[in-house]
């Protein structure tokens, strides 16, 4: 790796890079932040994980939260994953959602390298139906926390990410309240 971010740019081509949830919004004034700067990183361990993890990006778009989705394997691309995790905060991210199947280590590997909140989504792509991914995500050692969702729980991961942002962003908080009120009529993705 040359450390100039080219590898992350190439990883973005594997998935998709979204500069806002369908509309450009000015981010709250903070160092390293500008309009459209991704606030949430969504990582997949494999391209086959994209259909489930794109459910998270759909929710983030609904709330107008700038985000990016990348495919980076903790096992096949450890240096790239390390660069992503170590630079996420300086690139303006507020939290990271990681989805992977089998005996995945994606969320834990990211959580070990950043102070940002990490949300793990165990995925069901294995012969064990995702139980292996659930155990590897939820059984993190002390001092390396990962907020773990249900198997294939990408929607809840995105809602939790939005709630984390809502602590400091009244506009996101208002959208979450509107969303929760709409749930009386049933959830519509």
What pattern of helices and strands is seen along the backbone?
HEEHEHEHEHEHH
Helix content: 25-40%
Quick one: biggest sheet? 6 strands, mixed
Oligomer: single chain
Individual helix count: 7
State the secondary-structure class.
Answer: alpha/beta
Using the CA coordinates, give the radius of gyration.
Answer: 16 Å
* Mean pLDDT value: 85
CA-based shape: globular
Low-confidence stretches: 12-32
Task: Give a structural overview.
- It is built from 7 helices and 6 strands.
- With 189 residues, the protein is α/β, with parallel strands linked by helices.
- It has a 6-stranded mixed sheet with strand order 1-3-2-4-5-6.
- α6 (154-166) packs across α7 (170-182).
Short structural description:
It is built from seven helices and six strands; from the N terminus they run H-E-E-H-E-H-E-H-E-H-E-H-H. The protein is α/β, with parallel strands linked by helices and 189 residues long.
SSE inventory with pairings:
Blueprint: H1 6-14, E1 16-18, E2 40-44, H2 50-62, E3 67-71, H3 78-87, E4 95-101, H4 106-111, E5 118-123, H5 131-138, E6 147-148, H6 154-166, H7 170-182
What distinguishing features does this structure have?
189 residues; alpha/beta; 6-stranded mixed sheet; 7 helices; 6 strands
């Amino acid at each position: 790796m040359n450390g100039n971010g080219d590898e992350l740019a190439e990883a973005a081509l594997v998935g998709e890079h979204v500069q806002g949830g369908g509309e450009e919004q000015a981010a709250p004034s903070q160092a390293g932040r500008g309009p459209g700067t991704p606030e949430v990183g969504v990582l997949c361990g494999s391209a086959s994980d994209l259909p489930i993890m794109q459910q998270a990006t759909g929710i983030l778009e609904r709330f107008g939260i700038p985000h990016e989705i990348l495919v980076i394997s903790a096992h096949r691309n450890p240096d790239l994953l390390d660069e992503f995790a170590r630079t996420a905060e300086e690139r303006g991210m507020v939290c990271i959602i990681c989805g992977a199947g089998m005996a995945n280590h994606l969320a834990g590997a990211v959580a070990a390298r950043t102070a940002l909140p990490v949300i793990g989504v165990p995925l069901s792509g294995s012969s064990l139906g995702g139980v292996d991914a659930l155990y590897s995500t939820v059984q993190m050692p002390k001092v390396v926390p990962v907020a773990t969702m249900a198997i294939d729980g990408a929607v809840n991961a995105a809602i939790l990410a939005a709630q984390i942002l809502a602590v400091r962003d009244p506009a996101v908080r208002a959208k979450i309240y509107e969303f929760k009120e709409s749930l009386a009529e049933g959830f519509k993705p």
